Amino acid sequence: KPIRDRQRLPVVPQGIERDDFLAALEDLKAKMGHEFVEINDKALKDGWYMEHPNTHDMMTILDEEELVASAVVYPSTTEEVQQIVLWANKHRIPIFPISMGRNLGYGGAAPRVRGSVTLDLGKRMNKILDINPEDYTCLVEPGVSFYALHEVLKEKGYDHMWVDTPDLGGGSILGNTLDRGVGYTPYGDHWACHSGLEVVLPTGEIIRTGMGALPGNNTWQAFPYGFGPYSDGLFSQSNFGIVTKMGMTLMPNPGGYESFMYTFQKEEDLGPLMEIIRPLRIGMILENVAQVRHVAQGIAAQGLPRSKFYQGSGSIPDEVLHTAAAESPAGDHTWAYYGMSYGPSHIRAYKLAIVDAEFLKIPGAKKVDPSTLPADDYYFSRDRIAAGIPDIHELRWVNWTPNGAHIAFSPVSPIRSADAMKLFGLGKKLHQQYGIDFFPAFIVGLREMHLIVEIVFDRDDTERKQAAMDCLRDMIDQAAALGYGEYRTHLVLMDQVASTYSWGDGALMKFNERLKDALDPNGILAPGKSGIWPKRYRGRGWEM
Ligand code: ADP
Protein backbone atom coordinates (compact mmCIF):
# COMPACT_ATOMS: atom_id res chain seq x y z
CA LYS A 1 0.00 0.00 0.00
CA PRO A 2 1.70 3.20 -1.04
CA ILE A 3 1.74 5.91 1.59
CA ARG A 4 2.20 9.34 0.03
CA ASP A 5 1.08 11.84 2.63
CA ARG A 6 3.73 14.51 2.96
CA GLN A 7 0.96 17.05 3.65
CA ARG A 8 0.72 16.57 7.38
CA LEU A 9 4.32 16.43 8.48
CA PRO A 10 6.06 15.27 10.49
CA VAL A 11 4.70 11.74 10.58
CA VAL A 12 3.33 11.18 14.07
CA PRO A 13 4.05 7.79 15.65
CA GLN A 14 0.91 5.76 16.25
CA GLY A 15 -0.72 6.06 19.66
CA ILE A 16 0.21 9.71 20.32
CA GLU A 17 -1.92 12.77 19.68
CA ARG A 18 -0.44 15.12 17.12
CA ASP A 19 -0.35 18.13 19.45
CA ASP A 20 1.19 16.13 22.28
CA PHE A 21 3.85 14.88 19.91
CA LEU A 22 4.70 18.35 18.62
CA ALA A 23 4.88 19.62 22.21
CA ALA A 24 7.20 16.73 23.11
CA LEU A 25 9.49 17.66 20.21
CA GLU A 26 9.63 21.22 21.54
CA ASP A 27 10.59 19.79 24.92
CA LEU A 28 13.37 17.80 23.24
CA LYS A 29 14.62 20.88 21.39
CA ALA A 30 14.79 22.79 24.64
CA LYS A 31 16.91 19.99 26.16
CA MET A 32 19.22 19.35 23.19
CA GLY A 33 19.40 22.74 21.53
CA HIS A 34 17.13 23.63 18.61
CA GLU A 35 19.78 23.02 15.99
CA PHE A 36 20.25 19.44 17.15
CA VAL A 37 16.66 18.31 16.58
CA GLU A 38 15.63 18.17 12.93
CA ILE A 39 11.98 17.68 12.08
CA ASN A 40 11.58 15.51 9.00
CA ASP A 41 9.19 17.71 7.06
CA LYS A 42 10.98 18.06 3.72
CA ALA A 43 10.83 15.94 0.60
CA LEU A 44 12.77 12.73 1.15
CA LYS A 45 16.10 12.71 -0.66
CA ASP A 46 17.92 9.47 -1.35
CA GLY A 47 21.39 10.94 -1.97
CA TRP A 48 24.06 8.28 -2.48
CA TYR A 49 26.28 6.11 -0.31
CA MET A 50 28.59 8.86 0.94
CA GLU A 51 25.75 11.37 1.35
CA HIS A 52 23.02 9.10 2.55
CA PRO A 53 19.85 10.26 4.31
CA ASN A 54 19.24 9.57 7.99
CA THR A 55 15.45 9.85 7.70
CA HIS A 56 14.65 6.69 5.76
CA ASP A 57 16.14 3.75 3.85
CA MET A 58 17.59 5.19 0.64
CA MET A 59 17.34 1.71 -0.84
CA THR A 60 13.85 0.99 0.34
CA ILE A 61 12.05 -2.07 -0.93
CA LEU A 62 8.72 -0.66 0.32
CA ASP A 63 7.33 2.78 -0.28
CA GLU A 64 9.98 5.03 1.28
CA GLU A 65 7.32 6.75 3.40
CA GLU A 66 6.55 3.47 5.20
CA LEU A 67 9.56 3.31 7.48
CA VAL A 68 10.32 6.95 7.95
CA ALA A 69 11.52 8.98 10.93
CA SER A 70 9.48 11.88 12.32
CA ALA A 71 12.58 13.70 13.49
CA VAL A 72 16.30 13.18 13.94
CA VAL A 73 18.18 14.16 17.10
CA TYR A 74 21.93 14.55 17.36
CA PRO A 75 23.29 13.87 20.86
CA SER A 76 26.91 14.72 21.61
CA THR A 77 27.53 12.75 24.82
CA THR A 78 26.41 9.62 26.63
CA GLU A 79 24.58 11.86 29.11
CA GLU A 80 22.60 13.44 26.27
CA VAL A 81 21.67 9.99 25.01
CA GLN A 82 20.48 9.25 28.52
CA GLN A 83 18.38 12.44 28.52
CA ILE A 84 16.79 11.47 25.20
CA VAL A 85 15.91 8.05 26.58
CA LEU A 86 14.27 9.61 29.64
CA TRP A 87 12.39 12.01 27.37
CA ALA A 88 11.15 9.10 25.23
CA ASN A 89 9.91 7.28 28.34
CA LYS A 90 8.11 10.37 29.60
CA HIS A 91 6.25 10.88 26.33
CA ARG A 92 6.07 7.20 25.24
CA ILE A 93 7.76 8.00 21.92
CA PRO A 94 9.57 5.27 19.96
CA ILE A 95 13.24 6.09 19.34
CA PHE A 96 15.64 4.35 16.98
CA PRO A 97 19.43 4.59 17.33
CA ILE A 98 21.75 4.57 14.34
CA SER A 99 25.48 5.06 14.33
CA MET A 100 25.98 6.28 10.77
CA GLY A 101 22.98 4.71 9.07
CA ARG A 102 24.89 3.15 6.20
CA ASN A 103 23.46 -0.28 6.86
CA LEU A 104 22.49 -0.56 3.20
CA GLY A 105 20.81 -3.77 2.13
CA TYR A 106 19.59 -4.22 5.71
CA GLY A 107 17.45 -1.11 6.19
CA GLY A 108 19.87 1.81 5.94
CA ALA A 109 18.95 4.48 8.47
CA ALA A 110 15.24 3.64 8.60
CA PRO A 111 13.46 2.98 11.90
CA ARG A 112 11.23 -0.10 12.14
CA VAL A 113 8.25 1.86 13.50
CA ARG A 114 7.01 4.68 11.28
CA GLY A 115 7.40 8.08 12.92
CA SER A 116 10.10 7.01 15.40
CA VAL A 117 12.58 9.68 16.44
CA THR A 118 15.95 8.64 15.07
CA LEU A 119 19.03 9.13 17.28
CA ASP A 120 21.84 9.87 14.87
CA LEU A 121 24.73 9.15 17.22
CA GLY A 122 27.44 9.30 14.62
CA LYS A 123 27.21 12.93 13.63
CA ARG A 124 28.54 14.40 16.88
CA MET A 125 29.77 11.33 18.78
CA ASN A 126 32.55 10.55 16.36
CA LYS A 127 35.68 10.48 18.45
CA ILE A 128 38.37 7.86 18.58
CA LEU A 129 38.67 7.95 22.37
CA ASP A 130 41.79 5.84 22.62
CA ILE A 131 44.29 3.99 20.51
CA ASN A 132 46.65 1.75 22.43
CA PRO A 133 49.69 0.93 20.28
CA GLU A 134 51.02 -1.59 22.81
CA ASP A 135 47.88 -3.63 23.31
CA TYR A 136 46.70 -3.18 19.67
CA THR A 137 43.28 -1.93 20.73
CA CYS A 138 41.09 1.14 20.41
CA LEU A 139 37.96 2.64 21.93
CA VAL A 140 35.53 4.34 19.56
CA GLU A 141 32.30 6.29 19.53
CA PRO A 142 29.46 5.44 17.11
CA GLY A 143 30.51 7.94 14.43
CA VAL A 144 33.95 6.50 13.74
CA SER A 145 34.01 4.94 10.28
CA PHE A 146 36.46 2.33 9.04
CA TYR A 147 37.95 5.02 6.80
CA ALA A 148 38.41 7.41 9.73
CA LEU A 149 40.21 4.90 11.96
CA HIS A 150 42.39 3.77 9.08
CA GLU A 151 43.36 7.38 8.31
CA VAL A 152 44.20 8.15 11.92
CA LEU A 153 46.40 5.05 12.24
CA LYS A 154 48.28 6.22 9.16
CA GLU A 155 48.58 9.80 10.42
CA LYS A 156 49.98 8.63 13.73
CA GLY A 157 52.46 6.38 11.98
CA TYR A 158 51.02 3.28 13.59
CA ASP A 159 51.99 1.03 10.70
CA HIS A 160 52.11 -1.96 13.00
CA MET A 161 48.31 -2.04 13.35
CA TRP A 162 45.56 -2.80 10.82
CA VAL A 163 41.83 -2.12 10.88
CA ASP A 164 39.60 -4.86 9.51
CA THR A 165 37.14 -3.34 7.02
CA PRO A 166 33.92 -4.71 5.50
CA ASP A 167 33.05 -4.54 1.76
CA LEU A 168 32.20 -0.86 2.09
CA GLY A 169 34.35 1.19 4.44
CA GLY A 170 32.13 4.25 4.91
CA GLY A 171 30.01 2.79 7.70
CA SER A 172 30.44 2.92 11.45
CA ILE A 173 32.76 0.41 13.12
CA LEU A 174 30.44 0.28 16.10
CA GLY A 175 27.22 0.01 14.01
CA ASN A 176 28.65 -2.70 11.78
CA THR A 177 29.94 -4.67 14.75
CA LEU A 178 26.61 -4.46 16.59
CA ASP A 179 24.86 -5.77 13.49
CA ARG A 180 27.48 -8.56 13.39
CA GLY A 181 28.92 -7.48 10.07
CA VAL A 182 32.11 -9.06 8.75
CA GLY A 183 35.34 -8.00 7.10
CA TYR A 184 38.03 -9.89 5.24
CA THR A 185 41.22 -10.12 7.26
CA PRO A 186 41.77 -12.74 9.98
CA TYR A 187 39.97 -10.19 12.21
CA GLY A 188 36.88 -10.36 9.99
CA ASP A 189 34.43 -11.46 12.68
CA HIS A 190 33.94 -7.98 14.09
CA TRP A 191 31.78 -9.02 16.99
CA ALA A 192 34.37 -11.61 18.09
CA CYS A 193 37.05 -8.89 17.90
CA HIS A 194 35.30 -6.24 19.99
CA SER A 195 36.05 -5.86 23.68
CA GLY A 196 33.84 -3.87 26.03
CA LEU A 197 30.77 -1.68 25.59
CA GLU A 198 29.26 1.35 27.23
CA VAL A 199 25.48 1.16 27.00
CA VAL A 200 22.55 3.43 27.85
CA LEU A 201 19.69 1.16 28.89
CA PRO A 202 16.12 1.90 27.77
CA THR A 203 15.29 3.19 31.24
CA GLY A 204 18.26 5.55 31.25
CA GLU A 205 20.90 3.77 33.37
CA ILE A 206 24.42 3.65 31.95
CA ILE A 207 26.46 0.45 32.18
CA ARG A 208 29.94 -0.61 31.11
CA THR A 209 30.38 -4.27 30.25
CA GLY A 210 33.30 -6.63 30.81
CA MET A 211 36.26 -5.06 32.59
CA GLY A 212 34.65 -1.65 32.10
CA ALA A 213 32.59 -2.32 35.23
CA LEU A 214 35.72 -2.25 37.38
CA PRO A 215 36.66 1.33 38.27
CA GLY A 216 40.25 2.19 37.41
CA ASN A 217 40.82 -0.93 35.27
CA ASN A 218 43.27 -0.92 32.37
CA THR A 219 42.00 -4.11 30.68
CA TRP A 220 38.62 -3.02 29.21
CA GLN A 221 39.82 -3.45 25.62
CA ALA A 222 42.09 -6.41 26.33
CA PHE A 223 39.76 -8.87 28.10
CA PRO A 224 36.20 -8.91 26.81
CA TYR A 225 34.49 -10.91 29.56
CA GLY A 226 35.04 -9.35 32.99
CA PHE A 227 33.16 -11.27 35.67
CA GLY A 228 29.71 -12.82 35.77
CA PRO A 229 27.28 -13.32 32.89
CA TYR A 230 28.66 -12.04 29.59
CA SER A 231 26.14 -9.34 28.79
CA ASP A 232 27.56 -7.93 25.53
CA GLY A 233 25.61 -10.39 23.40
CA LEU A 234 22.36 -8.83 24.59
CA PHE A 235 23.26 -5.61 22.80
CA SER A 236 24.04 -6.96 19.34
CA GLN A 237 21.21 -7.10 16.77
CA SER A 238 18.97 -6.12 19.63
CA ASN A 239 16.80 -3.36 21.03
CA PHE A 240 17.94 -3.67 24.64
CA GLY A 241 20.30 -0.70 24.79
CA ILE A 242 22.06 2.14 22.99
CA VAL A 243 25.78 1.60 22.68
CA THR A 244 27.81 4.78 23.11
CA LYS A 245 31.36 3.38 23.25
CA MET A 246 32.94 0.18 22.03
CA GLY A 247 36.39 -1.31 22.37
CA MET A 248 37.91 -2.96 19.33
CA THR A 249 41.03 -5.02 18.85
CA LEU A 250 43.39 -4.20 15.99
CA MET A 251 45.29 -6.69 13.88
CA PRO A 252 49.08 -6.73 13.95
CA ASN A 253 50.61 -5.88 10.59
CA PRO A 254 51.54 -9.39 9.39
CA GLY A 255 54.75 -8.24 7.70
CA GLY A 256 53.66 -8.85 4.15
CA TYR A 257 50.62 -10.00 2.22
CA GLU A 258 49.63 -11.35 -1.15
CA SER A 259 46.21 -11.68 -2.74
CA PHE A 260 45.30 -14.52 -4.98
CA MET A 261 42.40 -15.35 -7.25
CA TYR A 262 41.38 -18.66 -8.74
CA THR A 263 38.61 -19.32 -11.22
CA PHE A 264 36.54 -22.46 -11.56
CA GLN A 265 34.69 -23.34 -14.73
CA LYS A 266 31.49 -25.12 -13.91
CA GLU A 267 28.56 -24.47 -11.63
CA GLU A 268 28.95 -27.95 -10.12
CA ASP A 269 32.59 -27.20 -9.18
CA LEU A 270 31.11 -25.43 -6.15
CA GLY A 271 30.61 -28.76 -4.33
CA PRO A 272 34.18 -30.14 -4.55
CA LEU A 273 35.56 -26.63 -3.98
CA MET A 274 33.78 -26.42 -0.61
CA GLU A 275 35.24 -29.79 0.42
CA ILE A 276 38.71 -28.41 -0.39
CA ILE A 277 38.13 -25.07 1.33
CA ARG A 278 36.80 -26.45 4.63
CA PRO A 279 39.92 -28.12 6.06
CA LEU A 280 42.18 -25.38 4.66
CA ARG A 281 40.07 -22.65 6.19
CA ILE A 282 39.57 -24.31 9.59
CA GLY A 283 43.31 -25.09 9.60
CA MET A 284 44.09 -21.41 8.76
CA ILE A 285 46.02 -22.21 5.60
CA LEU A 286 43.29 -20.08 4.03
CA GLU A 287 43.68 -17.27 6.54
CA ASN A 288 41.04 -14.70 5.77
CA VAL A 289 37.27 -14.53 5.45
CA ALA A 290 37.28 -15.60 1.86
CA GLN A 291 34.89 -15.14 -1.00
CA VAL A 292 33.60 -17.57 -3.56
CA ARG A 293 31.75 -15.35 -5.98
CA HIS A 294 29.54 -16.22 -8.90
CA VAL A 295 30.60 -14.79 -12.24
CA ALA A 296 27.36 -12.77 -12.44
CA GLN A 297 28.65 -10.65 -9.56
CA GLY A 298 32.04 -10.23 -11.15
CA ILE A 299 30.39 -8.95 -14.30
CA ALA A 300 28.10 -6.57 -12.42
CA ALA A 301 31.06 -5.33 -10.33
CA GLN A 302 32.44 -3.73 -13.49
CA GLY A 303 29.72 -1.13 -12.93
CA LEU A 304 28.05 -1.51 -16.32
CA PRO A 305 24.27 -1.67 -16.66
CA ARG A 306 22.53 -4.97 -17.32
CA SER A 307 21.19 -3.56 -20.60
CA LYS A 308 24.71 -3.62 -21.98
CA PHE A 309 24.63 -7.42 -21.76
CA TYR A 310 20.98 -8.34 -22.09
CA GLN A 311 17.70 -6.62 -22.88
CA GLY A 312 15.27 -9.47 -22.18
CA SER A 313 13.09 -9.88 -19.14
CA GLY A 314 13.48 -12.77 -16.70
CA SER A 315 16.76 -13.91 -15.13
CA ILE A 316 19.76 -13.19 -17.32
CA PRO A 317 20.61 -16.48 -19.10
CA ASP A 318 23.82 -18.34 -18.16
CA GLU A 319 25.03 -18.23 -21.79
CA VAL A 320 24.93 -14.44 -21.74
CA LEU A 321 26.99 -14.38 -18.54
CA HIS A 322 29.56 -16.76 -19.99
CA THR A 323 29.88 -14.75 -23.19
CA ALA A 324 30.46 -11.61 -21.12
CA ALA A 325 32.94 -13.42 -18.84
CA ALA A 326 34.89 -14.72 -21.83
CA GLU A 327 35.55 -11.10 -22.80
CA SER A 328 36.49 -10.05 -19.26
CA PRO A 329 40.14 -9.97 -18.10
CA ALA A 330 39.76 -13.08 -15.91
CA GLY A 331 38.23 -15.09 -18.78
CA ASP A 332 35.19 -17.36 -18.75
CA HIS A 333 34.37 -19.09 -15.46
CA THR A 334 31.49 -19.67 -13.06
CA TRP A 335 33.15 -19.17 -9.65
CA ALA A 336 35.99 -16.96 -8.54
CA TYR A 337 37.81 -17.39 -5.23
CA TYR A 338 39.38 -14.25 -3.74
CA GLY A 339 41.78 -14.81 -0.87
CA MET A 340 44.87 -13.42 0.77
CA SER A 341 47.95 -14.93 2.35
CA TYR A 342 49.70 -13.05 5.16
CA GLY A 343 53.25 -12.89 6.47
CA PRO A 344 56.74 -12.59 5.01
CA SER A 345 57.27 -14.17 1.59
CA HIS A 346 58.74 -17.48 2.76
CA ILE A 347 55.75 -18.03 5.08
CA ARG A 348 53.32 -17.11 2.31
CA ALA A 349 55.05 -19.37 -0.18
CA TYR A 350 54.52 -22.37 2.09
CA LYS A 351 50.79 -21.74 2.47
CA LEU A 352 50.19 -20.66 -1.12
CA ALA A 353 51.77 -23.85 -2.45
CA ILE A 354 49.29 -25.93 -0.46
CA VAL A 355 46.37 -23.82 -1.67
CA ASP A 356 47.58 -24.06 -5.26
CA ALA A 357 47.95 -27.84 -5.17
CA GLU A 358 44.51 -28.26 -3.61
CA PHE A 359 42.58 -25.81 -5.80
CA LEU A 360 44.12 -27.13 -9.03
CA LYS A 361 42.70 -30.57 -8.26
CA ILE A 362 39.44 -29.25 -9.70
CA PRO A 363 39.54 -29.77 -13.48
CA GLY A 364 39.64 -26.44 -15.32
CA ALA A 365 40.70 -24.43 -12.23
CA LYS A 366 43.05 -21.53 -13.01
CA LYS A 367 45.13 -19.14 -10.98
CA VAL A 368 44.66 -15.63 -12.31
CA ASP A 369 47.83 -13.59 -12.76
CA PRO A 370 47.04 -10.14 -11.29
CA SER A 371 49.47 -8.45 -13.69
CA THR A 372 47.04 -9.35 -16.51
CA LEU A 373 44.19 -7.40 -14.86
CA PRO A 374 43.41 -3.71 -15.42
CA ALA A 375 44.11 -1.40 -12.46
CA ASP A 376 40.42 -0.82 -11.72
CA ASP A 377 39.57 -4.53 -11.72
CA TYR A 378 37.45 -5.74 -8.82
CA TYR A 379 40.39 -7.97 -7.81
CA PHE A 380 42.28 -4.92 -6.53
CA SER A 381 39.33 -3.85 -4.40
CA ARG A 382 39.38 -7.29 -2.77
CA ASP A 383 43.13 -6.93 -2.37
CA ARG A 384 42.78 -3.61 -0.54
CA ILE A 385 39.98 -4.82 1.70
CA ALA A 386 41.82 -8.00 2.73
CA ALA A 387 44.77 -5.75 3.63
CA GLY A 388 42.56 -3.60 5.88
CA ILE A 389 42.31 -0.66 3.45
CA PRO A 390 38.73 0.67 3.25
CA ASP A 391 37.13 0.79 -0.19
CA ILE A 392 33.79 1.41 -1.94
CA HIS A 393 34.31 -0.32 -5.31
CA GLU A 394 31.72 -2.89 -4.25
CA LEU A 395 28.99 -0.29 -4.82
CA ARG A 396 29.47 -0.55 -8.56
CA TRP A 397 27.16 -3.48 -9.08
CA VAL A 398 24.25 -1.30 -7.96
CA ASN A 399 24.51 0.29 -11.43
CA TRP A 400 23.12 -2.96 -12.82
CA THR A 401 19.61 -1.46 -12.95
CA PRO A 402 18.48 2.16 -13.25
CA ASN A 403 17.82 3.65 -9.76
CA GLY A 404 19.73 0.67 -8.44
CA ALA A 405 19.27 -0.54 -4.89
CA HIS A 406 19.96 -3.84 -3.17
CA ILE A 407 18.62 -6.09 -0.45
CA ALA A 408 20.23 -9.23 0.89
CA PHE A 409 19.32 -12.82 1.66
CA SER A 410 22.06 -14.18 3.95
CA PRO A 411 21.68 -17.74 5.28
CA VAL A 412 24.49 -19.53 7.11
CA SER A 413 25.61 -23.13 6.74
CA PRO A 414 28.61 -25.34 7.37
CA ILE A 415 31.31 -25.26 4.65
CA ARG A 416 30.10 -28.35 2.88
CA SER A 417 29.36 -29.43 -0.63
CA ALA A 418 25.82 -30.58 0.16
CA ASP A 419 24.89 -27.34 1.93
CA ALA A 420 26.40 -25.11 -0.74
CA MET A 421 24.60 -26.97 -3.54
CA LYS A 422 21.26 -26.99 -1.71
CA LEU A 423 21.36 -23.26 -0.97
CA PHE A 424 22.65 -22.38 -4.43
CA GLY A 425 19.94 -24.54 -6.03
CA LEU A 426 17.22 -22.98 -3.91
CA GLY A 427 18.32 -19.44 -4.70
CA LYS A 428 18.68 -20.12 -8.41
CA LYS A 429 15.27 -21.79 -8.71
CA LEU A 430 13.46 -18.97 -6.93
CA HIS A 431 15.31 -16.21 -8.78
CA GLN A 432 14.28 -17.84 -12.05
CA GLN A 433 10.70 -18.21 -10.85
CA TYR A 434 10.52 -14.46 -10.12
CA GLY A 435 12.61 -13.41 -13.12
CA ILE A 436 15.42 -11.92 -11.03
CA ASP A 437 19.17 -11.98 -11.78
CA PHE A 438 20.99 -14.18 -9.28
CA PHE A 439 24.13 -12.78 -7.59
CA PRO A 440 25.36 -15.34 -5.05
CA ALA A 441 28.62 -15.17 -3.10
CA PHE A 442 29.74 -17.58 -0.41
CA ILE A 443 31.62 -15.79 2.35
CA VAL A 444 33.63 -18.39 4.20
CA GLY A 445 34.04 -17.63 7.92
CA LEU A 446 35.95 -20.23 9.86
CA ARG A 447 33.63 -23.21 10.40
CA GLU A 448 30.65 -21.77 8.58
CA MET A 449 29.86 -19.76 5.53
CA HIS A 450 27.36 -17.03 4.84
CA LEU A 451 25.70 -17.23 1.45
CA ILE A 452 25.09 -13.61 0.52
CA VAL A 453 22.59 -13.12 -2.28
CA GLU A 454 22.09 -9.50 -3.20
CA ILE A 455 18.97 -8.73 -5.18
CA VAL A 456 19.56 -5.56 -7.20
CA PHE A 457 16.34 -3.71 -8.00
CA ASP A 458 15.04 -0.48 -9.51
CA ARG A 459 13.70 1.69 -6.67
CA ASP A 460 11.07 3.15 -8.98
CA ASP A 461 9.71 -0.14 -10.27
CA THR A 462 6.92 -1.26 -7.94
CA GLU A 463 6.35 -4.53 -9.73
CA ARG A 464 10.05 -5.55 -9.57
CA LYS A 465 10.22 -4.54 -5.92
CA GLN A 466 7.28 -6.80 -5.17
CA ALA A 467 8.95 -9.64 -7.08
CA ALA A 468 12.11 -9.12 -4.99
CA MET A 469 10.09 -9.22 -1.75
CA ASP A 470 8.20 -12.34 -2.81
CA CYS A 471 11.45 -14.03 -3.79
CA LEU A 472 13.11 -13.10 -0.47
CA ARG A 473 10.15 -14.32 1.55
CA ASP A 474 10.09 -17.65 -0.31
CA MET A 475 13.85 -18.06 0.06
CA ILE A 476 13.65 -17.47 3.82
CA ASP A 477 10.82 -19.98 4.29
CA GLN A 478 12.22 -22.63 2.01
CA ALA A 479 15.72 -22.30 3.48
CA ALA A 480 14.26 -22.61 6.99
CA ALA A 481 12.40 -25.77 5.92
CA LEU A 482 15.82 -27.20 5.00
CA GLY A 483 17.28 -26.10 8.35
CA TYR A 484 19.02 -22.86 7.29
CA GLY A 485 18.63 -19.48 8.98
CA GLU A 486 19.80 -15.93 8.21
CA TYR A 487 22.68 -14.34 10.13
CA ARG A 488 21.25 -10.85 9.64
CA THR A 489 18.39 -9.37 7.71
CA HIS A 490 16.67 -6.26 6.43
CA LEU A 491 14.28 -4.42 8.76
CA VAL A 492 11.24 -5.45 6.74
CA LEU A 493 12.11 -9.15 7.00
CA MET A 494 13.03 -9.27 10.69
CA ASP A 495 9.69 -10.66 11.86
CA GLN A 496 9.81 -13.43 9.32
CA VAL A 497 13.42 -14.37 10.00
CA ALA A 498 12.87 -14.25 13.78
CA SER A 499 9.88 -16.58 13.35
CA THR A 500 12.10 -19.23 11.72
CA TYR A 501 14.17 -19.48 14.93
CA SER A 502 11.24 -21.24 16.55
CA TRP A 503 12.68 -24.26 18.39
CA GLY A 504 10.85 -25.23 21.59
CA ASP A 505 7.61 -23.47 20.66
CA GLY A 506 9.37 -20.15 20.11
CA ALA A 507 11.27 -20.39 23.41
CA LEU A 508 14.04 -18.02 22.27
CA MET A 509 11.63 -15.26 21.28
CA LYS A 510 9.73 -15.69 24.55
CA PHE A 511 13.04 -15.21 26.38
CA ASN A 512 13.83 -12.11 24.29
CA GLU A 513 10.38 -10.69 24.97
CA ARG A 514 10.79 -11.27 28.68
CA LEU A 515 14.09 -9.40 28.61
CA LYS A 516 12.56 -6.64 26.51
CA ASP A 517 9.69 -6.13 28.94
CA ALA A 518 12.04 -6.08 31.91
CA LEU A 519 14.60 -3.73 30.36
CA ASP A 520 12.22 -1.50 28.40
CA PRO A 521 8.87 -1.49 30.23
CA ASN A 522 7.52 1.41 28.16
CA GLY A 523 8.66 -0.16 24.90
CA ILE A 524 10.40 2.94 23.58
CA LEU A 525 13.64 1.57 22.15
CA ALA A 526 13.61 0.39 18.53
CA PRO A 527 10.35 -1.55 18.82
CA GLY A 528 10.30 -4.50 16.41
CA LYS A 529 14.05 -4.60 15.77
CA SER A 530 15.08 -8.23 15.19
CA GLY A 531 11.40 -9.17 15.52
CA ILE A 532 11.37 -8.26 19.23
CA TRP A 533 8.22 -6.27 20.04
CA PRO A 534 7.64 -4.72 23.43
CA LYS A 535 4.47 -5.66 25.31
CA ARG A 536 2.57 -2.56 24.29
CA TYR A 537 2.99 -3.43 20.59
CA ARG A 538 2.53 -7.21 20.75
CA GLY A 539 -0.51 -8.82 19.18
CA ARG A 540 -1.57 -5.55 17.56
CA GLY A 541 -0.66 -6.34 13.99
CA TRP A 542 2.77 -4.68 13.84
CA GLU A 543 4.55 -7.72 12.45
CA MET A 544 5.11 -7.93 8.72
P1 ADP B 1 26.57 1.47 9.64
O1 ADP B 1 26.52 2.92 9.39
O2 ADP B 1 27.89 0.99 10.16
O3 ADP B 1 26.17 0.61 8.50
P2 ADP B 1 24.20 1.67 11.25
O4 ADP B 1 24.38 2.91 11.98
O5 ADP B 1 23.29 1.70 10.07
O6 ADP B 1 25.61 1.10 10.85
O7 ADP B 1 23.75 0.56 12.28
C1 ADP B 1 23.50 -0.77 11.95
C2 ADP B 1 22.43 -1.34 12.87
O8 ADP B 1 22.86 -1.36 14.22
C3 ADP B 1 21.16 -0.54 12.85
O9 ADP B 1 20.12 -1.47 12.65
C4 ADP B 1 21.02 0.12 14.20
O10 ADP B 1 19.73 -0.02 14.70
C5 ADP B 1 21.97 -0.64 15.08
N1 ADP B 1 22.76 0.32 15.84
C6 ADP B 1 23.65 1.16 15.28
N2 ADP B 1 24.25 1.89 16.22
C7 ADP B 1 23.74 1.51 17.40
C8 ADP B 1 23.99 1.89 18.74
N3 ADP B 1 24.92 2.80 19.00
N4 ADP B 1 23.29 1.30 19.72
C9 ADP B 1 22.38 0.36 19.43
N5 ADP B 1 22.11 -0.05 18.19
C10 ADP B 1 22.77 0.51 17.16
How does this model look, in words?
There is one protein chain. The protein is α+β, with helices and mostly antiparallel strands and 544 residues long. The chain is 30% helix and 18% strand. It is built from 14 helices and 20 strands. Strands 12, 13, 14, 15, 16, 17, 18, 19 and 20 form a 9-stranded antiparallel sheet that branches. α1 packs antiparallel against α2, α6 crosses α11 and α11 packs antiparallel against α12. It is globular and about 70 Å long. The mean pLDDT is 94. It binds adenosine-5'-diphosphate. Adenosine-5'-diphosphate binds next to β3, α4 and β10.
Task: Produce the secondary structure layout.
Layout: H1 18-32, E1 37-39, E2 71-73, H2 78-91, E3 95-98, E4 117-120, E5 128-132, E6 137-140, H3 146-155, E7 161-162, H4 173-178, H5 190-193, E8 194-200, E9 206-208, E10 242-249, E11 251-252, E12 257-264, H6 270-282, E13 290-294, H7 295-300, H8 318-327, E14 335-342, H9 345-359, E15 366-367, H10 378-386, E16 404-409, E17 411-414, H11 417-433, E18 440-444, E19 448-458, H12 462-481, E20 485-486, H13 494-500, H14 503-519
Parallel strand pairs: 2-4, 3-4
Antiparallel strand pairs: 1-2, 5-6, 6-10, 7-11, 8-9, 8-10, 12-14, 12-15, 13-14, 13-18, 16-19, 17-19, 17-20, 18-19
Bound molecules: adenosine-5'-diphosphate.
